[in-house]
Amino acid sequence: MKQYSYLLGASLLMAACQPGQPKEEQDMVHLITLAPGHFHAALVQKTATPGIDSVVHVYAPDGPELEAHLNLIKQYNGRADQPTNWKEEVYTGADWLEKMKADRKGSVVVLAGNNREKTNYINAAVKAGMNVLADKPMAITEADFNSLRTSFADAASSKVLLYDIMTERSEITNILQKEFLRDATVFGEMQSGTPEQPAIEIESIHHFYKMVSGKPLRRPTWFFDPSQQGDALVDVNTHLVDLTHWMLFDTAALDYTTDIRMDKAVKWKTPLTRAQFSTITGAETFPDFLLPYVKDSVAGIAANGTVDYTVKGFHIRLSALWNFEAPTGGGDTHYAIARGTRANIVIRQGKEESWKPELYVEPNVPDTAFATTLEAAVKRLSAQHPGITVEAQGKRYRILIPQELRTGHEAHFAEVLQRYLGFLKAGAVPEWEVKNMITKYYVTTAGQAMATEITK
Questions:
Q1: In whole angstroms, what is the distance from residue 422 CA to residue 416 CA?
Q2: Cβ neighbours, 10 Å, residue 444
Q3: Would you kindly state where each structural domain of the chain is located, as residue ranges?
Q4: Number of H helices, E strands in the chain
């Protein structure tokens, strides 16, 4: 059994208040990081947050994943611009999970790592009376989904908070798309759609090789194993389902047993050569658990999928895809269309947009006064989102968004943390959030279970 203490910084978990603690310490939120295997665990700590203690307790097996996590925290502490001051107290003994539960150094557990064990870790933390803030996905199989439902029930009876990190709700184009959906003068009413032309259609393309916090991201080898990471239908697709339900229903609660009908799902592989795999992971060869997917020195990675379903009668199509790397000068892309009776509200993030998400309003009925109507709507929205304007581009309109509203993916983790801190202060996650998390993971895991594999 080994115990190490690294003075690197704090993490993100709320410690149980002890009666003997000074008042200011009792008011602080103390974080625990459990088995960090994904860089999202560190992004929670990229900026300092008032009210969160600088000491973070980390429980994890020793190895390169823990080292990568600590190095990111060290990078945040050592940067010239707004450095953080985290102090990581690290335990790496073989009994690290039991030790975390016994120590109770904090009552909020941050989880971002191997998804095969994540549902079990959630269950363990909740049963130990600890709040949980978990990276997506919280479930990658139907068995995980059933376990997660139990964890939500246990959390409710124990009065602890279980929540997942949905960063995409903080992206300004997603926020504005949702706002326009609620403006009948511009959007009209949401069309119910058809299987061929859904009411909402989203496609998100990601890349295995990418930069994070200014450096090439090193991914663990298990990230490419569908039994450990899950594939796109249960991983990235978690964000897409969340955005869809949030845009359509806002704070209305959904019931997966009555509101969802699963229609079909397909999945296909992304080829990775051994050299590409080595570039991403640092491993010289494919690990044994990937060998069943390797043919002629090329691994077929279960990374792409599309799911079609209806929610309260609205047809939805969601697609998540992964390539090895982005085109030169490019990055991840996002396409999302919401079809209304008066106009479609569309997000595009491609070469034409210089790989930045941009929002467009595309009228689908003749209306000579539409430009005036849209300008009035933009003016109303500018009270909440200062600086937005509108520009005509042929038959469509582009919503011009000032740079100060584009906070970026890494900064969104701090915004999710603020949301979670509000829940902690209130003493509960809103009921609609809980029900919609359960519904979301039903869609992703049921889609995975019904998916047929195709060749592209």
A1: 10
A2: 32
A3: 3-164, 169-412
A4: 14, 20
β-partners of residue 339 are: 344
Whole-number Å distance between alpha carbons of 136 and 88: 23
Half-sphere exposure of 249 (CA within 13 A, CB side): 20
**CA–CA separation, 390 and 398 (whole Å):** 6
Reading phi first (left if > 0) and then psi (alpha if -120 to 50, else beta), residue 423 is in alpha
CATH entry, 169-412, from 3.30.70.2740, 3.40.50.300, 3.40.50.360, 3.30.360.10:
3.30.360.10
Largest CA distance in the chain: 75
Token look-up 């097996």 returns 61
| 161-195: pLDDT as tens digits | 999 999 999 999 999 999 999 999 999 999 999 99
Helical ranges in 22-140 per DSSP H: 23-27, 40-43, 64-78, 96-103, 115-127
Tell me the one-letter amino acid at 228.
Q
- For domain 3-164, the CATH architecture is 3-Layer(aba) Sandwich (3.40)
> Which range is least confidently modeled, 140-154, 189-203, 401-415?
401-415
Structure tokens at 397: 């309109």
Separation between Cα atoms, residue 174 and residue 202, nearest integer Å: 11
Helices assigned H by DSSP within 132-254: 142-158, 172-181, 184-187, 237-249
Q: Is 349 exposed, middle or buried (0-12, 13-18, 19+ CB in 10 A)?
A: buried
Pair of tokens at residue 212 = 């994070």
In the block, tokens 């003493």 appear at 427
Which tokens belong to 300?
């077929």
Q: How many residues does the chain have?
A: 456
Give residue-wise pLDDT tens across range 218-260.
899 999 999 999 988 999 999 999 999 999 999 999 999 999 9
- ω into residue 137 within 30 of 0, thus cis? yes
pTM of the predicted structure, to 2 decimals: 0.91
